Each structure stands twice: as C-alpha cells, then as structure tokens.
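Appendix B. Worked example

We walk through a single record from start to finish. Start with the input: the chain for VOC family protein, Aliisedimentitalea scapharcae, length 186.
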Amino acid sequence: MDLSTLPSVVTNETLSNTFLGNVVELCIVTDDHIKTMEGLCKLGIGPWAVYTFSPETVTDQTYRGIPCEFALKVCFAKSGNMIWELMQPLWGPSIFQDFLDQCGTGFHHIAYDCNDMPWEQRIADLEQRGFEMVQSGKWQGRNSFAFFDTQDATGTTFETYVFPDDWDYPEPESWFPSRPAEGLTW
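Next comes the structure step. The output line below is what the pipeline stores for this chain.
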C-alpha cells in the first residue's frame, strides 16, 4: 500500500478529505420486518414507526442509474442521536433484495448527515471519489436519499439523505409494539 496516496491527518477526528458528518442511521435489511422488530424490542430498541415506501410515497425512484419502481417496508426507531432502520423489500428491483439474495438478513448500510453540504455536492463528492449511486428516491417528494456502492472499499453500503428544515415524519401506518404515549412525537 502506498501511504502517500492517503489523505493527511488533520485532527484526532478528521482527515484532510473529510466530508461525511455524523452517523445518523444504521440499517438492517430483513425478509421479515415483524420478526426483526420483535427481536430488537427484546433488546430495548423501539418503538417502531412502520411505513411503506412505494411509487405513491417515493418519487424519482432509481436502481443502478435507471428509473424504476420498487416498494419497501421501512421501519424506524430512535435511539439517542441515532435512528435504527429496517428495510424489507416488497417488490421491484432494489439493492435491498440483492443483499437478501446474497447474504440474508443483516446489517446493510450506514447513513451520514454530510455536514449540511448541499444535496448536489454530496452526490458529486461521492461519485468523484469513485462511488456509484445504486439506489435513490425522494420520500414524500421532499426527503431525498441515495445509496452508494461502497461495499468493496468499506464492507458496507453508505447512504446520504437530506431532510428539509421544516421536515416532520408523516404519521406511520402502524407502530410496533404500540404507539408512544400521548404527547410524545416521532
């Protein structure tokens, strides 16, 4: 390995080419979101907000650079400053179904907030570093998300997304194991 091609160390937390912000999400891809939520609830992770991402709720859907339609069951649970996410592919082409076919249920990706960098710049920076966008969409027409093929370089997939400043999660289609107490919001 030629160490002269690596970025220089700036601080104990940054390199000269650092642009990813804070880790904000860890995702498990599963073929049974209920079973996986049950297991995580046993570990004290929950409650879970359950959504269906489909062409009705996610616009601008792509898979490996080609417009496509797909549907996923997506479940979120807060844990401190981080969000746990579960994704179960329902139909259509997706990197999540690809992962299930190759690996079965397991950790699939990590998401970073990218330090308030503009969306287009995030995408360009990841692509300039040699990482291809492999899945993307826009939830509720406002929350853009994109996944990059970082598997060979890092052993996992990286995601970036942007929530508008005035973003509120929509009411989930269900809660697991039950809705939070009155007055507590997602």
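Two observations about the output. Residues 21-163 form a domain with the 2,3-Dihydroxybiphenyl 1,2-Dioxygenase; domain 1 fold (CATH 3.10.180.10). The longest helix spans residues 33-42.
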